[in-house]
Amino acid sequence: MTTTPTTTQQPTTGRVTGGEIVCEDLVRIYAAEGIEVQALQGLTLHVSAGDLVAIVGASGSGKSTLLTILSGLDTPTAGTASVAGIDLLTLRGRARVAYQRHTVGFVWQQTSRNLLPYLTALENIALPMTLAGRERPSTLAQRADGLLEMLGVGHCRDKRPGAMSGGEQQRVAIAVAVANSPQVLLADEPTGELDEATSADVLEMMRTVNAETGVTVLIVTHDPTVSEHVRRTVQIRDGRTATEVLRRRETDEHGAELHIAEEFAVLDKVGRMQLPQDFVSALELKDRVRLTLEDDHAGVWRDARQATPAEPEQTEDER
Amino acid sequence: MSTPSRTRLLLRQATSSVGASIAIALIVAVAAGLFTAWPRLARVTFEDEVAFRSAQTSATARALTGTSRGDWPVEPGDESASYEAALGTLDDVRAGAGPTLRPLLGDPELLITVGGRANAVTGSALPFDGPTPRPSDLAGRLMLPRAIDSVIDHVEIVLGSAPGAWPGAVVDPEAGIITPGEPIEVMLSAATADRLGIALGDELTGWGPSLPISDDEDAEVTARVTGLFEPTDPDEDYWQFQLGALDARIASDPNIGDFGIGAVYLHQDSAAQLAFSEGLIPATDVWIPVAPGGDDPVALLDDLREITAREITLGDPDLGGAQLQLDTALIDVLDGALDAQRGTAAVLTLVAAGPVGVTFALLALTTRLAVSRRRATLALASARGGSPPQIRGALGLEGLVLGVPAAALGAAVATLAVPGAAEIGDYLLAALAGLAPAAFLAGAALPSLRTQRHDLSGRSTSPWRWVVEVLLVAAAAGSLYVLLSRGLQSTTTQTVDPLATATPLLISLAAAVLATRLFPYPMRVVHALARRRRDLPAFLGSARALREGGAGLVPMLALLVATSIAVFSTTMLTTLTGGVDESARAANGADVRLVGPPYPDETVEQIASIDGVAQVARIFTQPQTGYTVGDTTRQVTLYAVDTATLGQVQTEVSGAVELPPDMDTLVDGSIPIVVSDPLAPESDETLTIRMTSTVPVTAVGTSPSAAGIADGTLWAFVDLELLREVTGQNLVPRMMLVDLSPDADVEAAVAQISATVGGVGTIESVEAEQAGFLDSPSATSMQRGFVVALALSLLQCVLALVLTLVLAAPARGRLIAVLRTLGTGPRDARRLVTWELVPLAVVALAVGTALGLALPHLVVATVDLSVFTGQSTPAVTYDWPQLALVLAGVVAIIGLTLLAASTLARRLSLSVLRIGDSP
């Protein structure tokens, strides 16, 4: 289902309609000479428009693959994936180019993949706009300046990436990503090469962009501290989404600020979910489990026919 | 501060990595220059050769000459058939010549010679008597009356005056009688007069026609010598057309004595008056001098053919008139030159096709380098929304900006450096070279920002590559089949044959592709061997060569082409030289051939004793010998030879006569004889030959050919000494064949032989003919062409190797960085580079050598080489020592490149390993 996205754009850094990300049972298999790698094995993810979500996972969990698919650089093998209403499975040719121009923007971890080393910050931001060809040259510089100001790197306007610090480079990279007013901003390990203070700055910038422009932001990282800056964190394990953590700040009756984080297991369309590893190892769940339905919860029981895991001597002593 | 616009960004991108761009521009410029210079040089060389050959032809052979015998070109009393009218006809012919020929033609000349019935000794000269007694050494005197109007301009009258026109016989209609009237005035050269004993004022009688004055009296036409002349320039070409004009010719009859023949010159209008006589037979000689030169040999040839096809009638056509056609040896000279040039061009184009193809392959490689240098920009641009047409368009534009000016510059330099007219066809390849970078850049595979796993496979996984390779091999096989089944193609067509040119290139490509595909198999064996050893670079190098061998198609092709050219040119030269040698030997009959004066036995012994002479065979020829088989007698040419030594003297001559042993002893009282195949006796009939007596012979064999000795089909061989013995005649041979020992100094031996015979007669040696071929313009231009092609292809090899190393540098750099963290040293880095190139080079050299050895067979089977060697398919001869030398040279150059490259590899491979760097 491909619906034409509508964006409301105002001249400089106006608000856009954030795009909704819907992935259901997304599969990506890489086949090479005699080797088949299943990077994504049926991933389910829903990100509502204008949301700021972090995806956390160990290396090899498939998070980079997810990002590559969502940014239009790769095509999924099976399942459904749609961003801002555009179906990614059937994305070809000119539609793909339009998607990469106007629907998504992305920030990679290494500067070499975000910025061209021989162009200044202004020219780097101008590049996607020139490629898209929608902006008139007169308004182009204006818009670029506005973006630089918004991200606090206006002083880097005429500097080359080599002359900027890591944090400045990433902020310019964010500006490049949102140059064409995309509906979704994807970031792959944006703080991977930065120290803690700079990481916090960059994440703050992303929050600013999300708040000011309404663009949906999806950050992929293995750094757990990132999750403290975002409202929703999704954990990916073995090519599937496993658990989610929702954070919020509450003020209790004494006026103190409480940070509350709730962890959830992700449930897909058909009711499948993944038990956390510590649950499985604690109860030594294997092969089959029994499920019972209670009034307000469902229970998961080990198969009684399997041997009891408790120390045999103890039970005997107790008897 | 400025607004970044599209063009500004393009410019920034283009200038960001200029190295590859400069390389592309340089290659295009050099290639365009060479592509333009080659055909221009070929044309200039050809024109020089034609001018050289036509200047070497003698003036008489070069001129347009025509003769007619028996018919009068002039008639008396008719204005339209006068000498002037005849010259006018010739002037018209000259005016009607083609545009290329016209400026080279001189004034036409018309020579009328009057003679009598032909005689074996004195020709058609007319015997005469004169008051002054003839010299005592002459048995008789004869004269050749000639009439030509221009002779007066080339002589100086030393005595007397020039002859006036003879009014002709006087007719008295009333009396019905015709009287001779005045004697005809003639002049002759002072030397002729002296030799023949003629003085000024002498009246020469006895030659002319008789006119009946009355019923029983005849009066004859006489001539009176009115002038003696000396030529103003006895050496000029004018006199070459009328031999015997300046001095008397002596014809000797061995039985009677010497006869003196002199030319006497009449006034040109006198000749017409002699036309009534039936006893006088006219001979008309016409010539129009042709100057050497001329720009366009092909057009000149067409004009010559056209003018020589015309039938010219002089005189009165109703009464017969003299009909003649012009001919010139220049046609053959030009034809020969054209054939030689086309043969050379055919061979050289075959050779040049390889480097041309490799040039484009190098351009493709360089553009790949340029694209890989721009990887980051292109990937980023395409990921951030650059549509493929936008990006390819930008790349194509850059290619045009790089290629077209460079090609124009190269072509301009070549046009200025090589003088001559410019033809549009010269610039075709240069234009292609100028457009190639744009095509290659726009068609390159665009890099993607997506991370790729390079450890899974180094080879291209595109299925199209395999399809393209199969198509290529099929195309090569197909064109080879078509070329071979078409057979021998004579090189008379103007244009370069595309099939013959493309086939070697296709074969080279197919060989390179196959070599690349089959390269892993021996490599696996090497790798298995390296695995067992403790040497890291060998193991790692062989593993890398296995995995990444597919990327080496272009250097493989370049090396292959260079090697095959080196081997091919060497073999072609030795084949052609061998072909020339064989045909020269077959024509000559032996190493040295002496023909001319009688060679008495003492001379023969002297020659046999010269240093370097291995054997001598004498040959006595008697043409028109009666050979009787039973009742029938045929006229054959009898050769009495030294049968014992002839076999040895003619060992290397193909087609030599086969003589059985013991031909110098009588067989049943008769001489053994070997005859040609058509003369083979069918039954046991008596055979005899007629010498001064009839000699019985016995046929002991037949031979299909007798190269170097016998022409024609009817000949017979007997032993000279035996024949002398049996007939008692002193048969003195006038031909000798000399065999020189293998290590003899040919020049010294020939000089000594020449001194022994006193410089009389002709001495021809095979060595001289061979040297003549090697010095000929065709051979020198072919050699030069080979050398240029070889130098070029070696340069391309070097370039291809360097480019391949530079392309592989990033990946190698990362590998070496990892290895250095593990503790390997810089020496291993150099050895890794060596392992990258050496297996490739070894395979390419092997396949290239095989190809170079096989290609001459293709050339010999499809190109008509008779213009060089006299036989259309000479056998391919391999000179192994020379080939080994040439190959060693090629290997040395490539080895030097590898050495230089591996020392540079350290610089190329320096890199800092960073975590997370995109591969």
Question: What's the layout of helices and strands?
Answer:
The complex is a heterodimer of chains A (319) and B (919).
Chain A: E1 21-32, E2 35-47, E3 52-56, H1 63-70, E4 78-83, E5 86-87, H2 93-102, E6 104-107, H3 111-114, H4 121-132, H5 137-150, H6 166-177, E7 184-188, H7 196-213, E8 216-221, E9 232-237, E10 240-251, E11 257-265, H8 277-283, E12 289-293, E13 298-302, H9 312-318
Parallel strand pairs in A: 3-8, 3-9, 6-7, 7-8
Antiparallel strand pairs in A: 1-2, 1-4, 4-5, 9-10, 10-11, 12-13
Helix pairs in contact in A: 4-5, 4-6, 6-7
Chain B: H1 6-16, H2 18-56, H3 59-62, E1 64-69, H4 83-95, E2 109-115, E3 126-127, E4 138-147, E5 155-160, E6 170-172, E7 177-179, E8 184-189, H5 190-196, E9 203-204, E10 210-212, E11 218-220, E12 223-231, E13 249-253, E14 257-266, H6 268-273, E15 281-288, H7 297-308, E16 311-314, E17 322-325, H8 330-373, H9 375-383, H10 388-417, H11 427-442, H12 463-486, H13 498-518, H14 520-532, H15 536-548, H16 553-588, E18 592-595, H17 601-608, E19 613-629, E20 632-641, H18 643-649, E21 671-676, E22 687-690, E23 694-703, E24 715-719, H19 720-727, E25 735-740, H20 746-756, E26 762-765, H21 766-775, H22 777-822, H23 826-862, H24 866-869, H25 880-908
Parallel strand pairs in B: 4-14, 8-12, 20-24, 21-23
Antiparallel strand pairs in B: 1-15, 2-4, 2-15, 3-4, 5-12, 6-7, 8-14, 9-12, 10-11, 13-14, 16-17, 18-25, 18-26, 19-20, 19-22, 19-25, 21-24, 22-23
